[in-house]
Amino acid sequence: MIQNPKRYTITAALPYTNGPIHIGHLAGVYVPSDIYSRYLRLQGRDVLFVCGSDEHGVAISMKAKKEGITPQEVIDKYDGIIRKSFIDFGISFDNYSRTSAKIHHDTASEFFTTLYEKGDFIEQVTEQLYDAKADQFLADRFVIGTCPKCGNEEAYGDQCEKCGSTLNATDLINPKSTITGETPIMKSTKHWFLPLDRYEDFLKEWILVGHKNDWKPNVYGQVKSWIDGGLEPRAVTRDLDWGIDVPVEGAEGKKLYVWFDAPIGYISSSKEWALREGKEWEPYWKDQDTKLVHFIGKDNIVFHCIIFPAMLKAEGSYILPDNVPANEFLNLEGNKLSTSKNWAVWLHEYLEEFPGQQDVLRYALTSNAPETKDNDFTWKDFQARNNNELVAIFGNFINRVVVLTNKYYNGIVPSPNTFSEVDEATLTELKAYPAVISSSIERYRFREALGELMNVARLGNKYLADEQPWKMIKTDEGRVQTQMYVALQIAAALSALCEPFLPFTATKLSRILKIESPLSWATISETSDLIESGHQIGEAELLFAKIEDEEIQKQIDKLEATKTANIAENKKAEPQKDAIQFDDFSKMDLRVGTILEAEKMPKANKLLILKVDTGIDVRTIVSGIAESFKPEDIIGKKVTVLVNLAPRNLRGVESQGMILMTTNTEGKLVFVNPDTEAANGETIN
């Protein structure tokens, strides 16, 4: 670990521009990286926080094919949505770039050329999967098949999303092209490989020895597993029609592999920032006094802890990451988040549906962050954290302090009298919190740090509840002055301590307290006079609003609609039965009928006894639909009836026919209805 670095370079994983940002991205990468960056800036550190849109690779090509537009149209559309969402949500990047930018193409090409000229690549002809019908080589995401490790039949050519294994497309069992559905063939193609095996000893020493005690166990464990399994050369080029051209002779039609070019996006984003700000970028990437920290999700651990460091080591002039505090995955209502299946809470939609409540989502995601294991986001938990914690603890304390100060002193901070032991103990405890919260943040324990922040609000609530100034005002006004002064110091401290986690709340609270220059954490640790006597504060405003059940149910219903749509899209029709002759079909007598009466069969959960007008007669039909329909709801329903089915005795009732049914996309029974204009008794043929 670098002690007392001169500067920090903080990177957040580049989001693919094949869709908007969802809560999984936020919980895994962008909220923790923003907390860390904001915290460091508050400490007066030199911070460069960079990110950008990842706009190359197969995911973009797949999206373009699916939507019938060009890759450029895809990246322009989603870069705009993502960029605006980050701004509106308060993610405080110093620079947000694009890998389609010229500065990135130039930087990535130069990086490749440097390694190529040093002889760091292996040039090799290999057998790759090829779709003869589409007349193209299949990049990893254009292949789907059975995972050789867990048997998942829908594994991609680069990774199995079920077991998390990293794969090569040629590893898949029964591979299929996602473009045409055809079984691909093997065909020779030339590519360039980074020989990771050459860096195995370096990686063992640097990570397994050097970072054994400071990297998160989930990160260290995954890296160790990879290294222990033996590293192999990894392709850095691909046969694709979208991306950065491989800048060497004989590489026509080939592009840099997205996992080679994407992390270089951090460097090109830094260059873009430096050009705009008139600064030097190299100290942030090449000075040993710089601390480099990558924030990523667990699916990117191998690339940021093995492949990218090997690239940097091969180039020779760059520093290596000091830490890669990757998070695990966040699930949604018990199911894995999925962009392709629309099973997500999209950030831009959240901002529209919960205006002004950015910090509520930041709080919910941080307090439930998947820091060392997968966690689950539910709308009920989101509501509870807002109502029971932000509103009832944080907001309640601030509201009481501000209301009482305005009521008793017209909003002017009173002068304290003699401090009691309780006052002294409370102010001493308050001074300890900046160091406690800092310790958690410095160790990337953001959930723990947020819990300590809320303990400051709890400290304030307990102080007011124990001291009861609203009662004391009747007997000892001098004592109340001291009580309110102490409570206001806690409120002032909260305005600064909450800024990394709840930046919009920090701004609002500072405005309410009329604190124009933000308090430093050092000041909170050193003095009890954070907001001086005689200072005028503003009127009370609610920091947080209660979220009602109706708002939450609306979100749950929205997800249920998505689930139904997914079932409909993925539902496969039953295969055709064996062929029959026309005479076989003509033996069935299908008629239009109307249900006249319906009642439940006694002691039978599934059966209804129906009286049906078939046009021929009124007959009894017993139907196993009682779990799907109430008797009173189907009276008068037009139905299709097989009238010449041999009678059958069911629980003592003779059933003289069958009602035709099917199931809808939700798996529920529905009637096969004839047109309402058809009369009872009309034949169906």
Detailed description of the structure:
With 685 residues, the protein is an alpha+beta fold. The protein is 42% helix and 17% strand. It is built from 21 helices and 26 strands. The strands form eight sheets. Strands 17, 18, 19, 20, 23 and 26 form a six-stranded antiparallel sheet that branches. Strands 3-2-1-13 form a four-stranded parallel sheet, sandwiched between helices. Strand 24 (661-663) and strand 25 form a beta hairpin. Helix 6 crosses helix 9 (301-315), helix 11 (358-367) packs across helix 12 (379-409) and helix 12 crosses helix 16. The radius of gyration is 33 Å and the shape is flat. The termini are far apart.
Residue windows where pLDDT falls under 50 for at least 5 positions: none
Strands, total number = 26
Strand content: 15-25%
How would you sum up the major sheet? 6 strands, antiparallel
Radius of gyration: 33 Å
Q: Helical segment tally?
A: 21
What is the oligomeric state here?
single chain
Measured as a percent range, the helix fraction is 40-55%
Shape: flat
Mean pLDDT: 92
The helix/strand class is alpha+beta
End-to-end Cα distance, whole Å, is 80 Å
What labels would you give this structure?
685 residues, alpha+beta, six-stranded antiparallel sheet
What would a concise description of this structure say?
The protein has 685 residues and is an alpha+beta fold. α11 (358-367) packs across α12 and α14 (446-467) runs antiparallel to α16.
